[in-house]
Amino acid sequence: MKYYPQSDQILQEIKKANSILLNAHRNPDLDSIGSSTVMYKVLKDMGKKVKIVCTHQVPKEFFFIRNASQIEKIDFKSYDFKSYDLFIVLDSGSYDIVTGSKEVLLPKMEKIVIDHHRSNLFTDVNIRLFEERASATCEMVYKLLSDWNINIDQDMATALFSGIAGDTVFLRYTENTKETYRIIGDLIEKGADKNLLVEKMFNNYQFLSVKLVGEFLRNMTREENFVWSAVDYETFEKYGKPKGIRELTADLFFQSVNGAKFGLALLEEEKGKIFMSFRSIKDTDVSKIARTVGGGGHKNAAGGKMNGEFRKIVKEIVDKVSRLPAVYFSAKSI
Fold this sequence. Notes:
Radius of gyration: 19 Å
CATH topology of the largest domain: inorganic pyrophosphatase (n-terminal core)
Strand order of the largest sheet: 3-2-1-4-5-6
CATH architecture of the largest domain: Alpha-Beta Complex
Oligomer: single chain
Largest sheet: 6 strands, parallel
Helix content: 25-40%
Distance between the termini: 35 Å
Order of helices and strands: HEHEEEHEEHHHHHEEHHEEHEEH
CATH superfamily of the largest domain: inorganic pyrophosphatase (n-terminal core)
Number of helices: 12
CATH class of the largest domain: Alpha Beta
Shape: globular
């Protein structure tokens, strides 16, 4: 029995294409890199011309995942897409997550979207494979490969395991726990290297990165329903602009303050560009909260971006979120 009714249709579209683009989304994480690199390996083995593109440079700490170093940073506004005839969009809920800007759309070509985010906003796609209960896009790629009867080797298993571990904060938050743990167990059987992931991603923090975490904690403020903290670009630059530190801080601390429904970490990663990480536990659906300020994501982990003057944008975000009705902070649907 197949996981997805669209699996055969997706495979047929891939077989028809000669040159295929894959994406790693902006500020790439383990799920984005794991899913895109595994798909890259599969398509290359099929004899396809394949490239993974990203609007940001992939940090070297992700290079323990095979083919992560092959991901090419591009400018979606000027890149020449004419030689490609299929774009497989992975782990991305909106155009700006892929292109880096709400004003920049994807190129006009055949598109397949494979995603698990609650707020998926793509309109011009040929096939949309969407599974909200999947813990990660890597979990969906695992299921696709199973439907296609493709063998998962040790490197692929490590990449898929890493993506699932990353998006669930090492299995703390899963939508479909029994299935996710079964898939994790199979990936471990196939050789997924848990110790390598822990060594590279959780036991390898740079000194200045840890100091920046301290800035987030020092600035933390308590509101009625949530805690938040904001760090400006000058401070970010002072500590070497470490990648992933906003998400790390949010994962470790911002969803765990006693009595708070959720936490919000704000970081000006580029001058005039403020990125948001929302984190919650249990019933508060931060994907709905994030959508009120132009973002989106998962029930317990969401994000977004706003442009403008740092203090003004931070105040605007915090004020808007603070004024949301109580239903946003409960298990009731909106």
